[in-house]
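Working notes for the structural subgroup meeting. M.R. asked for a predicted model of this chain before we commit to crystallization trials. I am recording the input and output together here so anyone reviewing the notebook later can reproduce the run.

Input as submitted:
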Amino acid sequence: DVQLQASGGGLVQAGGSLRLSCVASGFTFDNYAIGWFRQAPGKEREVDSTISTSDGSTYYKDSVKGRFTISSDNAKNTVYLQMNSLKPEDTAVYYCAVSGDPFVTSRTQWDSWGQGTQVTVSS
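Returned structure, recorded in token form:
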């Protein structure tokens, strides 16, 4: 079965950094898309960044461009989200998800979700 586990969240001051990890099992890691999503209190879940484990192509939401970096270590079945210059508005539960289509579009369906990891940024 497909399993995703997000970890690495915590409490950090504004301007600080965290590195989130998403460890995957139960599928062939090198031919999928992995996405990082946030869900802030009272808001819907939204995508921050995606990566194709097939060709390495990436996407970033405008508000995280230049601050967050997504990367994939296929040998470890792990995707990372390096978050720098964190802002209080980044406070959210962060989730990773997988799509069986490695090429992300606006119509991508995210098939499986991991447990979230809490990121709290204080001002």
